[in-house]
Amino acid sequence: MSTKNVRLGIIGLGAQGGMYAGVVTDGRIEGMTLGAIADTDPAKQQVAAETYPDVPFYDDYIAMLDSGDVDAVVTTVPHFDHAEMTITAIGKGIHTLTEKPAGVYTTQVEEMNSFAAAHPETTFAIMFNQRTNPVYTELKELIDSGELGALRHTSWIITTWWRPQGYYDQSAWRATWGGEGGGVLVNQAPHQLDLWQWLCGAPKKVFAKLAFGFQRDIATEDEVNAVVDFGDGVTGSFITCTNDIFGTDRLEMLFDRGKVVVDSSKKVTIYRLAEDERTLSEKMTMQEVAQLFRGEMDPSSVFTVEEKEYESVWGQQHIDVLTNFAANINDGTPLIADGAEGINGVRLASGMQLSAWTGREIDLVDYPAEEYLAELNRRIEEEGTFPTRS
């Protein structure tokens, strides 16, 4: 048990920041205490005074960084602000855990990553809490072991994000290009985009059809259909939306020697082939194939099926990331997710948007970052509410 103590500063006392403040003050994060809170909203100062009376409050996050009250911060603020606040904090020697997504456009994330890399003495992490979910950590180990062979195809349908119009009407920044930088891809689905490329590898190209304000009175995407190219003939598809009240969460990954199906991020079915699929294709007679599909052959001679059920514990994944963040600062424990990895999901999401805007396939290796930013700024200007970005 660590005797060291990281004093955490929370930038933004909203729902997420409030949750983090609660678990830290409850003593659920080993090696971490609540050092200070910063928020520009005067109403949050009253909330902080009532809930955390002994914790310093600042209406300017830079003043908090300079106060000497904190050793580390977490940035629970709008997406556009993640990179700037992270750079400012790291520049002052403050360890930083940035919320997902890492940013809205890749140029700002690249700047953040480069700055963090130049300050290796300061911890830079990102809140990819789903990387602590046993459903996916065990899958990652299985895939990386090579037991199932090479990936052939993958698909993820993740439509469990139903949001009524009232959700968007709560705040003027929601689902706007200038205030949020996108819709379902930057708000609801970043965890799946990160997990997808974490498990399967980073796609090299993407072609996408997006619907903007399709079923909601918003400017940004509320339905996404994307096809990605991983190279070497390996493809994948990603479908998400915010208008399916029933919702589906199904991830499939087909490999040379098996298949994995994940339903509702809880049930995992693993199919293992006795031999490589191409070998089976070449050696099985048509009579044997008919016997297999008529149920006249013991299927275990061809494949086995393993099913696993997992239970989710709300909030535990965030606690695990915060605990890991503190352990990295205190003892050098490897990070669950290095902050630099956040760019992968941002590039994939913005690539999908750019593909839909231009009608062409987007190269994610030689990514046209400046073109994306120009297209984004054009939409921000058309909204006429928020400043353009650089």
Automatic annotation (TrEMBL):
<dbReference type="InterPro" id="IPR052515">
    <property type="entry name" value="Gfo/Idh/MocA_Oxidoreductase"/>
</dbReference>
<dbReference type="Pfam" id="PF01408">
    <property type="entry name" value="GFO_IDH_MocA"/>
</dbReference>
<protein>
    <submittedName>
        <fullName>Dehydrogenase</fullName>
    </submittedName>
</protein>
<dbReference type="Pfam" id="PF22725">
    <property type="entry name" value="GFO_IDH_MocA_C3"/>
</dbReference>
<dbReference type="InterPro" id="IPR055170">
    <property type="entry name" value="GFO_IDH_MocA-like_dom"/>
</dbReference>
<feature type="domain" description="GFO/IDH/MocA-like oxidoreductase">
    <location>
        <begin position="136"/>
        <end position="260"/>
    </location>
</feature>
<feature type="domain" description="Gfo/Idh/MocA-like oxidoreductase N-terminal">
    <location>
        <begin position="7"/>
        <end position="119"/>
    </location>
</feature>
<keyword id="KW-0520">NAD</keyword>
<dbReference type="InterPro" id="IPR036291">
    <property type="entry name" value="NAD(P)-bd_dom_sf"/>
</dbReference>
<dbReference type="InterPro" id="IPR000683">
    <property type="entry name" value="Gfo/Idh/MocA-like_OxRdtase_N"/>
</dbReference>
<dbReference type="GO" id="GO:0000166">
    <property type="term" value="F:nucleotide binding"/>
</dbReference>
